[in-house]
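Deviations from the work plan: none for this task. Representative record:
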Amino acid sequence: MKRRSLLAAGVAALALATGGAMADGHEKVKAGFIYVGPIGDGGWNYQHDQGRLAVEAHFGDKVETIYQESVPEGADAERAITQMALQGADIIFTTSFGYMDPTNAVAAKFPDVKFEHATGYKREHPNVATYDARFYEGRAVIGHIAGHMTETNKIGYIASFPIPEVIQGINSAYLHAAKVNPDVEMVVTWVYTWFDPAKEADAARAMISQGVDVIMQHTDSTAPQAAAQEAIAAGERVFTFGQASDMSAFAPKPRIASIIDDWSPYYIKRVGQVIDGTWEQSASWGGMPEGEVVIGEITDEVPAEVKAEAEAMIAAITDGSYHPFTGPINKQDGTPWLAEGEVAEDGELLGMSFYVEGITSEIPN
Amino acid sequence: MDLSAINPTLLVAALMVASTPIILAAIGEMVVEKAGVLNLGVEGMMIVGAICGFAIAVETGSPFWGFAAAALGGAVLSLLFGVLTQYFLSNQVATGLGLTLFGLGLSALMGQGYVGIRPPEMGKIEVPVLSDLPFFGPVLSNQDAMVYVALLLVMATWVVLRFTRAGLVLRAVGENHDAAHALGYKVVRVRMMAIFFGGACAGLGGAYLSLIRVPQWTEGMTAGAGWIALAIVVFGAWRPFRVLLGAYLFGGVTVLQLNLQAAGANIPVEYLSMSPYLITIAVLVIMSSGKAKAALNAPACLGRQFHASS
């Protein structure tokens, strides 16, 4: 009892102290980042840390950033986030889905600190905001390229977990591949992990040995790229796409393009709002127009006219004239989903749990 | 579903590649446990072996020196465990877990300059006569050297443990260290040598991942392979060929379910991936039921500390 009240008093005093310092205008704004893996993973966490560095570069002396990497999702996350708040962070970005409940729990204790949770949906307190990116926009572009590049008409997709975000990607890629190549078949392999290089490489090899010649991945490591490189050395014709990060070490082939998560615009915007005192709770879902989803360099392995079409699609999505889920689209069982010209609503996409017509496999439970 | 798309020869060849890192790590850990020591640091030693092997192979351009460095790296790390548990009598479980955490961090530090690099390739070995056989040719021949090294290691371990004096002493130390001590055997020294061997094997297994199976360096790339090796030792009831069987079964299920998925078979993936773990749990339950313990061959002094004074 006593200890708890003491702690609360300490927290209040600290909050007062930081609040006072900020109003003073002399102290720097402190932005904290919590990462689920090492920043050297070359994918998801690396990209978030690039966003942190962009904040530092943009605001210079006005901000100070701190971060903690490899924080496990679950009980330990709450301790790490609390510690960061006690260190005087004014805004804390928690960058993995599993930090959702710990973020909200800590936010209740620190009403003056702003919390930003990536890919979640819970905003239980006015100082918690959520943000995510429309990766399916990137999938549409690489799906288009894949439809042109495949000769065996088999496109492989290394999928992590059957959650809406992954299913959006599979559907978006298939729709745009089938548009340019109606014979295309989507070979989906579930690996049930975000990160296991050996298993990801095995999945890529299994698909290559069965005639898949274009591979997409929704996992974090570069192992499928390495497996494809090995197959090319053995005389196969295989292409891949970089995931989350550019993975340009594997260009010009097998990696012929990539979907890059760029969190810098969002991080700069939100930290700027904390500095100005205009920060408000929000649920952000940015994509190509906001510069959060970027297509990496399309290499010369892709024919010039295909590259031009892909660039036209990027431009159309960016200026808002094209939505990757525009009807007519039927669900896998043939029932209509979107009528001619109808565009999918965000709520439907966020809960997507079905394949579109033409994909032959089934989503595991 | 088109099962004819699966080429059985390629499947079995892939199975052998997928199983090799687990075989290497598991056979090493089996020897350690046979000597009565439980080293839970396999994952840490594997990943340190993975980066040591990768770095040296890239620097020298020779996979052979890479594997040699990996064995040395894993073994040196295991000595840390050995000194702490055998001389300072620290708790084996806690020290082993600490070793895994330490190994993961150390490897991340060592590997900073090696991300996105391609390791030198290791040649395949064609075994004369064998390679001309219709089905077994492509399966058994034309693999990389480490696949054969792993198989030979399993056989050598079996021979040494079963038919040699050294193997008898090692087993005696693991079954009853007080009796072995009374007979004049150096319990701690035998255990240190076993730990060293286990570390070297785990290092080789790790390097097989980074140099051949994936092949590249990524932080945390073992992703639990060390824990699977530990489970396989229990599954194999501390017998070399059962360990081999367990590793093939595990590697086989992994590769097979990926191939079945790619062929469009609607199989319950989650259950198939779970099966090796379920079988291991079942074996553990049987083992802990007292009477069956002897039948399952667990070393009697496994995990118990020894000091000459006691």
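The radius of gyration of chain A is 22 Å.
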